[in-house]
Task: structure prediction
Amino acid sequence: MVVTISLLILWSWYSSKLLSKSSPSLPPGPYHLPILGYLPFLGRNLHTQFTDMAQTYGPIFKIRVGTKLYIVINTPELAKTVVRDQDVTFANRSLTVVATISSYEGQDIAWSSYNASWRKLRKVFAHEVLSNKNLKATSSFRRDEVRKNRQECL
Result:
């Protein structure tokens, strides 16, 4: 049993080294376990943990959760570049099982592929949800949530 687990870990490490040589260079990030990734080390307040990690690894860093690789962008300027300026490049995401179940098989704005339907959804979202009237109407809810999060962090 121990030999099998050791061989599995060794194979996982070796295959990740081979893939890293052939793939483009990635931003820095924390070390991770072979199959679980960084998942066991993630806490409840990801926003504060990612902020702390950005102090160590910089505004763009990688993190493995399970076998999936994620790139974390931790500044508003870079997020604006990704979401607004490079939206076509970053629009298509692989659909996970949870996303399939929670988003009508990937048909919502967060998970659908970049196409005419997605552009229409984005336009409706920006016009209806992000309108000044709607933002003013929900400002008290947002303020209360920020206060709750501040108290939890302290």
Summary: Residues 107-154 form one domain. Strands lie at 60-65, 68-73. The longest strand covers residues 60-65. Residues 64 and 112 are 23 Å apart (CA to CA).
